From TrEMBL:
Domain Metallo-beta-lactamase positions: 22-251
Organism of origin: Pseudomaricurvus hydrocarbonicus
Region (Disordered): 181-200
Protein name: MBL fold metallo-hydrolase
Any Pfam family: Lactamase_B
Domain Beta-Casp: 282-419
Transmembrane parts of this sequence: none
Length: 506
């Protein structure tokens, strides 16, 4: 099977920097034929591509002359953050993504470019216009031809991945060029073709290959989003493994855990800090908080407490995303829409305050520090590597009344990971070059993860009707990848289950 190649340019030595390549073999031999990229994300923390790219070295470190299109699975920065560098390297092709992602992507990139490149308004505008021209929004479940030429063809189809709004996994149909397929069709297949039955299957196996890139897969009970359904067919499955070695809390359990943390905040009058990705986690946690407030503020035991709960979202980006999320209701799940029909506003409730400007932010940090009013602060970044959450941590992490709640994955080398690991043992963390003792209580609520857990990942593979002959496990730390590999092999014994290395093709 060598009429196409798969290469991994990121998210093979960790969970960030997602970037995968699917290209056709050139009919001229040796050279790369035309290809596509799936995602082009930032590295975070200590993670690298293994070839040069890292959080501090973001230039594209692989050839792109033959890359004709980029497919974006979802708009998290570790999947799209290097798009400006891809354009700088000379990429001229279209950017395919889902319709909601096309609305959200310019917001993410505007932010990324202001942080990483320039604050010059005219330049930012110009860049965003280029992005908007390149964007090709695709409805879910619809085939789109992306490459069609003498070396063969690649078509793609997006399917809902249930990870964040607009997230997709990508089905790719790779087809050999027609003269090649004629010569490959064996006498046996041709004979079957003459007999009618079986010919389609025979031809298909010889000339076509279905590659599925999972992107990030959501958990079945993610707030707001419908769960992902497995594809009908995958010959090769490239699957993430962020939580390949873990099982999440159930829906009820995670809700109770969050409620307990908030109740503790009421007892000791401390703040609850929730570091969260501006997009996805923030909206989902707001959705859950609205639901807790709604259910408990009418309860006679809790009435006074919960009706007064203050929730602060301190991130201009998160506020803009939340607004866009509200506009994208057609993509919400049935439960969320039901709440809307009963007159509730899951992402815009009374106790919610948003902090926008930098001045407001400083005021908010001081207020939260100086007044003993229990409140919940949600701010980026999700792994505490920069962003406004850092100022809250600096102000409050040494206060034992503070509760820090991690709801997402913390990559190696990020302050979030240090706090999560050493906080419960009375350790310290370095923030902006200074050392802070961690006296706050640290909680990790796995149930709110945007990622499928081990069971969900196995189910995703198991439920593919025409199961994959090859499974490539990516986007996880070593332990997670190895454990998922073992379990995958056990449920799909006929498949080759492998952990690819950086840049490796197959
Ligand atoms: Zn993601």
């Amino acid at each position: 099977m060598n009429f196409f190649n798969i290469k991994h340019h990121g998210a093979v030595n960790g969970v960030t920097g997602s970037c995968h390549e699917l290209s056709l073999s050139s009919r001229l031999g040796g050279q790369e034929g035309p290809g596509i990229l799936i995602d082009c994300g930032l590295f975070q923390g200590a993670e690298t591509s293994g070839k040069g790219a890292s959080a501090n070295q973001l230039e594209i470190d692989f050839p792109i002359e033959h890359i004709q299109a980029l497919v974006v699975t979802h708009v998290h920065i570790d999947h799209v953050g290097r798009i400006p560098y891809l354009l700088a390297a000379g990429f001229k092709g279209p950017i395919y993504c889902s319709i909601p992602s096309a609305k959200l992507l310019p917001l993410v990139l505007e932010d990324a470019i202001k942080i990483g490149f320039t604050r010059n308004g005219a330049l930012v505008e110009k860049f965003l216009r280029v992005i908007e021209q390149r964007l090709k929004p695709l409805p879910y479940q619809q085939w789109q031809s992306v490459i069609e030429g003498p070396d063969g063809s690649i078509a793609i189809k997006l399917q809902p991945a249930g990870h964040i709004l607009g997230s997709a996994y990508v089905e790719c149909e790779v087809q050999k060029r027609s003269d090649q397929s004629l010569s490959v069709a064996s006498g046996d297949a041709q004979q079957k073709a003459r007999q009618g039955q079986g010919s389609a299957a025979g031809d298909e196996l010889l000339n076509k290959h279905r590659v599925v890139f999972s992107g990030d897969l959501g958990a079945p009970y993610a707030p707001l989003l419908p769960p992902p359904k497995s594809p009908y067919r995958a010959d090769t499955l490239v699957i993430e493994s962020t939580y390949g070695d873990r099982l999440h809390q159930g829906r009820k359990e995670r809700r109770l855990a969050l409620k307990a943390v908030i109740e503790r905040a009421y007892q000791d009058r401390g703040a609850v800090l929730i570091p969260a990705f501006s997009i996805g986690r923030t909206q989902e946690i707001l959705y859950e908080l609205e639901s807790l407030v709604h259910d408990l503020s009418t309860h006679k035991l809790y009435k006074d407490t919960w009706a007064n709960l203050q929730v602060i979202v301190d991130s201009p980006l998160a506020s803009r995303f939340t607004k866009t999320y509200r506009q994208l209701k057609p993509y919400w799940d049935e439960e969320a829409l039901k709440r809307v029909r009963t007159g509730r506003h899951p992402l815009n409730f009374e106790q919610l305050y948003t902090v926008d400007s930098h001045d407001q932010h400083e005021t908010a940090v001081n207020l939260v520090r100086s007044t003993a009013e229990p409140c919940i602060v949600i701010a980026a970044s999700g792994m505490c590597a920069g962003g406004r959450i850092v100022n809250y941590l600096k102000a409050l992490i040494e206060d034992p009344r503070t509760d820090i709640v991690f709801i997402g994955y913390q990559a190696q080398g990020t302050p979030g990971q240090t706090i999560q690991k050493y906080g419960p043992r009375g350790g310290y963390v370095e923030l902006d070059g200074e050392r802070y003792d961690i006296r706050a209580h640290v909680h990790s609520l796995s149930g709110y993860s945007a990622h499928a857990d081990q069971k969900d990942l196995l189910n995703f593979a198991r439920r593919i009707k025409h199961p994959p002959g090859q499974i490539r496990i990516i986007h996880g730390d070593d332990q997670a990848k190895r454990e998922l590999q073992q379990k995958m092999q056990a449920i799909l014994p006929a498949a080759e289950v492998m952990i690819p290395g950086q840049g490796e093709s197959g």
